[in-house]
Specification:
CATH class: Mainly Alpha
Largest sheet: none
Structural class: mainly alpha
CATH superfamily: Ribosomal protein S20
Order of helices and strands: HHH
Length: about 90
């Protein structure tokens, strides 16, 4: 429990940031899942349409420090490769 006014403010800020991070991570996971579903159904045009926005979302999430940069690079690589393999 925070005892000083500055500690109480820091606690409020941390909670607000936590909620924003959770929302961003959830948005990312949903976008990745949607793209993987398109790939699994073999819908190349739909997958290509989603790929650009999903990769952008991965980049912005990594830039904000919500996911690790290496995790972002790995995710982008795997998604791009899976869409390319639809051929």
């Amino acid at each position: 429990m925070a005892n000083s006014p500055s500690a109480e403010k820091r606690s409020r800020q941390n909670e607000k940031r936590r909620e924003q991070n959770r929302a961003a991570r959830s948005r990312l996971r949903t976008a990745v899942k949607r793209l993987r579903t398109e790939v699994a159904t073999g819908n190349k045009s739909g997958a290509e349409a989603l790929l650009t926005s999903t990769l952008s979302l991965v980049d912005s999430t990594a830039r904000k420090g919500i996911i690790h940069p290496n995790a972002a690079a790995r995710t982008k690589s795997r998604l791009t490769r899976s869409v390319t393999r639809l051929g």
